[in-house]
Amino acid sequence: MQELINRAKELLADGTVARVLGWREGDMSYNPEVAYFNSAEELDKFVYNGFCAANLSKYMIEASKLEGKTLVFLKPCDTYSFNQLLKEHRVDREKAYIIGVGCCGKLNVEAIKAMGIKGIQSIEIDDACETLTVKTIYGDKTVAYKDAMLERCHVCKGKEHMVYDELMGESRDTVDAERFAEVEKIEAMSPAEKFAFFQAELSKCIRCNACRNVCPACSCRKCVFDSNKFDSAQKANVDSFEEKMFHIIRAFHVAGRCTDCGECSRVCPQGIPLHLFNRKFIKDINKFYGEFKAGEDAETKGPLTNFTFDDVEPCDAVERG
Amino acid sequence: MQRIGVFVCHCGSNIAATVDVKKVVEIVRNEPGVVHAEDYQYMCSEAGQALIAKAIAEKNLSGIVVCSCSPRMHEATFRKAAERAGLNPYMVEIANIREHCSWIHKNVEEATEKAVILARAAIAKVNLNAPLKAGESRVTKRALVIGGGIAGIQTALDIADAGYEVDIVEKTPSIGGRMSQLDKTFPTLDCSACILTPKMVEAAAHEKITIYTYSEVEKVSGFVGDFTVDIRKKARSVDMDKCTGCGVCQEKCPSKKTPSEFNRGLGNRSAIYTPFAQAIPNVPVIDRDACIKFKTGKCGICSKVCQAGAIDYEQKDEIVTEKYGAIVVATGFDTIKLDKYDEYAYNQSKDVITSLELERVMNAAGPTKGHLERLSDGKHPKNIVFIQCVGSRCSDDRGKPYCSKICCMYTAKHAMLIRDKYPDVNVTVFYIDVRTPGKNFDEFYRRAVEDYGVNYIKGQVGKVAPQPDGSLLVQGVDLLDNKQILMEADMVVLATVIEPDPSVRKIATMLTASIDTNNFLTESHAKLRPVESPTAGVFLSGVCQGPKDIPETVAQAGAAAVKAIGLLAKDKLLTNPCTAKPDELLCNGCSACANVCPYGAITYETKLINDHGIREERRVAQVNNALCQGCGACTVTCPSGAMDLQGFSNRQIIAEVDAICR
Q1: pTM here?
Q2: What is the signed CA dihedral for A250, A255, A257, A259, rounded to 10 degrees?
Q3: Are B130 and B152 in contact (CB under 8 A)?
Q4: Tens digit of pLDDT for each residue in A225-252?
Q5: What would you measure as the largest C-alpha separation in chain A, in angstroms?
Q6: ipTM value of the model?
Q7: β strands within B564-613, DSSP E
Q8: Mutate which of A84, A89, A257 to test chain B, going by most B C-beta atoms within 10 A?
Q9: Which residues of A touch B639 (CB under 8 A)?
Q10: Domains of chain B and any CATH numbers
């Protein structure tokens, strides 16, 4: 962490960058928050640890409008989002100085709570990222790092950064689950079971819009749910149709652009596994158009916004399910 | 608020027999915006149109809904009527209560309810309509014909004779197509080459016709009147200008083991070859996959023997880009592969051949120099069995559901020619039906039966079994005598189903021209617009649209030419005003719309935007109205809903859906 701070200070000092985009301590040790740092002094509050899960790519949309370059720390998976935004002309590569930071998997405090650990005061992570010491009002508890990881880290896209100016720190393999296993489970359900599943999950939605606001693919200047130009503007959850409508439309809007960064599920206060929608789209795209990773580069046209003679015919797509 | 008039048509009994039109009028009268509603026997008649004009004037209507037939039938009629009455033509909406309603329902109550719902949807849309004005686009006075068979040649000649430039693109090294492979033609038995060659020569010599052989259409952009097409001229490895067509290179070429495409693989050709003697242009190509020079780097004999110095091993593919006002597709057909028909032993015996192969066998320039002989041992056959409908009229996925239309006639021709030249040969034809609708066709078939003693057996063949002695045992059934038949044959000829040339799928996609489940190009109207594709400016000639014989193909080729000429004769076309329009305040600048636009109508511009007081430079989409064809691909791709289609706005569509779901 200290190396990151030192390097950031250097880049600020020599004028390479005008500000730094990173994470600083939050009110609890397990919820660092996204922050801009404009000076060396401010950087003393900078943190980078297992809880710094937030994907900073989307912040670069606004940072691209500011004077000078912004130093941004991106984890391997975050770089996919940055590339996708670059492809969509939403961020300016010239305005970003990207340090690709290592990642050994990011943590989910909800997973720790789900283990029955209550009254958490603080969480300490050992240097090797092997164990967590959870200090609670009932005493200390020890948790294996791996067991507290976010779902997305169990199906990690890899240790490689897709775009960067320099790299710092080591990453490690965290994959220990099948990426599409959950999707396959839902695919195997009967239509009635599927409906019941999504009804149960989505009825928890409180329409706080956190998923949309955090999503790097949901970067519209004006979201259709906020615009009075359409009849889809933000509505109260007066019936169970509204939230389904919202999530289904959102899934369609990000289809082919979603990098599966998992931020939607991470920030959902209701614990809805929102990433499943997007992952179903990714699975289908892979099946029908060949393996495609949104954000792998900033140039390739996505299969849904491109046409080739090899494209699957709609009738075949229906047949193949 | 709009002032809407609703006009419900009886269409004689077409609508009124199933839809209670009076009831529809009474119900829609109370819809929001509706100030006038009436019904009439034939709304499209002079009197019906007069009713509409009168109502527009008297009730000061701002929009109208006509509940009648499909907009494909009469939308233009009613738009013109409205325009004459002083209304913007785009303030007219059609509710299709005939094809979508009365024709497909039997119950009057249900059909009436549906008619009301369809009317409501149209009314909901008109409530949000705004007047639109059509622009103009220019017409490039040049036509492209894809395919250089008899269909393409005839179309090109007719267009060129009318005074317009025409380019023919042919993928093989010569024009001529399937017809050049035929020996004789029914029902007059004239030699195919004798009647085709003069046409080929005429096309080649015509000052308005440019022929690109050994070339393929690579890319098509633009729209009716203004297509831009990339043509790939494949490297011939022979300089067209220098070559004299002497043919020495082909004689001396040491690589002579490539199956000849022209002879359907029944004979071999050299690596440098012209497909047939009368080929146009009479310039060979080097098949680089077969050429020893290209494979090993050593040889070069053709180059050494060429007096003209025309051989050019370094030649590269060349892309020619040309603009066209009209495109005619004439891609023709091929016979299907017979892999799924093991029972006919086509892949097991050389003496089981297709009818097209028999054409080559019968032809003096063919692999047997025109002598009828078994391909296995060169012996003169005594018994020949023809099997009809191999893959035609087939209900499973081995063949095709349609009738190939030409087989009955060419089989009668083959049978007759064989019996005429070799009276010692017994000819048997197994058939399901004999179909001979055409001028002098039935007479022709009867001659085969009555004058030439061809043995026609109604029934199909279940199996052709090659015997150890080389003969073929044919097991069939005679349906009229209701008995099994076992007969020995020396040769079996299969009337194999024809299918559109496989290249048509790619071409149809490039042209955004629709094809049916059998890959035949779809006509705009099966009866009234048989040579026009639903894609404006694209016309259909020959078998690419459906099975045809030569007389029909030539007639259709002429018809397609006339349609193309009608288009090229115009200087300007009215453009569709229903084009995409971006809302710059909502645009993210993401390029998704430009990526999906098939017409290249969307570009991006960085400009100063004032978004409710926030002034900033933004990258925003711009639509070129002359290029936009209103397909709407951009509107559904845009995640922020910034792109909208004039005349079919998101709001209008949702209003229609809401009206239907109400």
Answers
A1: 0.77
A2: 90
A3: no
A4: 888 887 777 666 666 677 788 899 999 9
A5: 64
A6: 0.88
A7: 572-574, 580-582, 602-611
A8: A89
A9: 220, 224, 253-254
A10: 4-126 (3.40.50), 142-233+317-332+501-568 (3.50.50.60), 248-305 (no CATH), 335-499 (3.50.50.60), 580-646 (3.30.70.3270)
Nearest by CB: B588 against A88, A305, A307: A88
Mean pLDDT across the stretch B511-527? 92
Report whether B382 contacts B425 (CB < 8 A): yes
> Does residue B187 have a cis bond before it (omega within 30 degrees)?
yes
The H or E element containing residue A105 is none
With CA atoms as reference, report the closest residue to B388 among B471, B519, B469, B479: B479
Amino acid residing at B237: S
Report chain A residues whose CB lies below 8 A from the CB of B591: 87-89
pLDDT in tens, A105-161: 999 999 999 999 988 888 888 888 889 999 999 989 999 999 999 999 999 999 999
pLDDT tens digits along B46-105:
999 999 999 999 999 999 999 999 998 899 999 999 999 999 999 999 999 999 999 999
Q: Which of B443, B438, B444 is nearest to B411 (CA)?
A: B444
Q: How far apart are CA A52 and CA A67, in angstroms?
A: 26
Question: Which residues have C-beta within 8 Å of that of residue B295, sequence separation ≥ 6?
Answer: B289
Q: How large is the average pLDDT for residues B348-361?
A: 96
Task: Indicate the average pLDDT of chain B.
Answer: 95
Query: Residues of B with CB below 8 A from A230's CB?
Result: 641, 650-651, 654
Task: For chain A, give every domain's residue range.
Answer: 1-105+154-177, 109-148, 178-321
Contact B525, B518 (CB under 8 A): no
